[in-house]
Design goal:
Length: about 425
């Protein structure tokens, strides 16, 4: 099932396409105006847009441009009347997948074209199970996608980027697109390793190796046999442990604590850090030889604020996870909420976005998330305000006052209008000294 947006002003054609695609199991939103289509594209993600070239409000070309800007991974089919194929050609240049000519009488042609367009849609690269996936539709992510595809072999990879950009998610994506995807994926946080723990935790131990070692224990490295071993926060690795790791990387073997038998380290190495390892090498806090062993193929993941076009598709994926986690129906974003999310800085990257969406979803009593839910679900940090926009706190107070004024001061109705509980409204009224 795919989410499809239809923009068609002729009611008969709109109903024909809507009914046919819903019978095929698709989730269809149908509008008769180009401006409505543009608003819908800002509010929620779609896999496919079907738009007529001639529409009231905004023509199909403008709708297509808006779609490509708001949702780069979307596929588009344009509908054009006979004799205006040049409009379809223009649409194809903008990125449309194909076009249909009116009058539409062939249901099989529509279904075939929709199936082909959906099959050609750019896919998210991410883990098959568990955790949020990153979307890779943004232009700034194209080098990352190509790099992930290149390292499907056994190359050692170093993932670079700020906290929260999804380095572990990318590591799992690399694992699952490689020949080792059938093997285990073992991850260890280097910041948690100490000299006392590293031997037993990383390499395992033999029975009787030390007091309390009542049986042989496999280390994390041995548990990753045939798969991928992920060293998270490798820049935090203590200097005395760096040499031990280097030896394993060079020799591809190790010994359990208390043992004499060597064990082959048949793993694919991926490491990640938010530190500048080259600067640490220059400062003498990170071994240069270890750096070169780890950075065979470095991949830098850009922060979320530099790939704004990823925010709405990524929000949709994260909201799916939030809904599942809380046993709620699927959530959607209205245009005001979508605009707020796109304008925020997201210094905490994907992790901050998910937490903010989850807070807003908890506050919302329905399934549509609006701007006020995010104003009340602090802390969303919007970009520096311009003009009279004000801070989020100002926006929150104004939203509350506007809601109270609209319902003539009736607090329960105001709370319902804001999509929050009555107790939350009373707390906000008290905080801002509003009566």
């Amino acid at each position: 099932m795919a989410k499809i947006l239809i923009a068609e002003d002729e009611e008969g054609i709109r109903s024909f396409m809507t009914e046919a695609l819903r019978l095929d199991g698709h989730d269809v939103t149908a509008v008769g105006d180009g401006a409505e289509a543009q608003q819908a594209l800002l509010a929620q993600p779609f896999a496919l847009l079907i738009t007529d070239v001639k529409l009231p409000g905004a023509d199909g070309i403008a709708v297509l441009r808006a779609a490509m800007k708001a949702q780069p991974a979307i596929q588009a089919i344009v509908v054009t009347a006979f004799g205006t194929v040049e409009s379809a050609v223009e649409a194809m240049k903008l990125g449309a997948f194909d076009y249909l000519q009116k009058p539409l009488r062939n249901l099989a042609q529509l279904r075939t074209l929709v199936t082909r367009a959906l099959a050609a849609r750019p896919q998210s690269v991410g883990p098959g199970t568990g955790g949020p996936r990153l979307t890779w539709g943004a232009v700034s992510m194209e080098p990352v996608v190509r790099a992930v595809e290149r390292v499907a072999s056994n190359a050692t990879v170093l993932l670079l980027g700020e906290s929260g950009v999804g380095k572990e998610v990318a590591a799992r994506a690399i694992h699952e697109t490689s020949a080792r995807r059938g093997g285990p994926f073992e991850a260890i946080n280097c910041a948690s390793l100490t000299a006392d723990l590293v031997g037993s935790e990383l390499f395992g131990h033999e029975k009787g190796a030390f007091t309390g070692a009542h049986e042989r224990k496999k280390g994390r490295l041995e548990m990753a046999e045939g798969g991928t071993f992920f060293l998270d926060e490798v820049g935090e690795l203590q200097p005395e442990l760096q040499s031990r790791l280097l030896r394993v990387l060079e020799e591809r073997r190790f010994s359990r604590v208390g043992g004499t038998q060597t064990v082959e380290a048949n793993v694919r190495w991926i490491s990640a850090t938010n530190r500048d390892l080259q600067a640490m090498v220059a400062a003498g806090t990170f071994r240069e030889d270890l750096y070169h062993r780890l950075a065979v193929f470095p991949i830098a993941l850009p922060p979320l604020r530099s790939r704004k076009e990823d925010i709405l598709p990524l929000s949709a994926l994260l909201l799916e996870k939030v809904a599942q986690a809380h046993g709620r129906p699927p959530f959607t974003l209205d245009a005001s909420a979508a605009a707020l999310l796109k304008d925020a800085r997201w210094d905490g990257n994907v992790r901050e976005l998910r937490n903010t969406l989850e807070r807003a979803a908890i506050l919302a009593e329905g399934t549509e998330l609006r701007r006020e839910h995010f104003s009340l679900a602090e802390p969303v940090r919007a970009a520096a305000p311009t003009g009279d926009a004000g801070t989020l706190e100002d926006m929150e107070k104004k939203a509350i006052m506007d809601a109270l004024e609209a319902v003539h001061g009736h607090r329960q109705r105001a709370a319902n209008r804001l999509g929050i509980g009555l107790r939350t409204l009373y707390e906000k009224l008290k905080r801002y000294g509003l009566s």
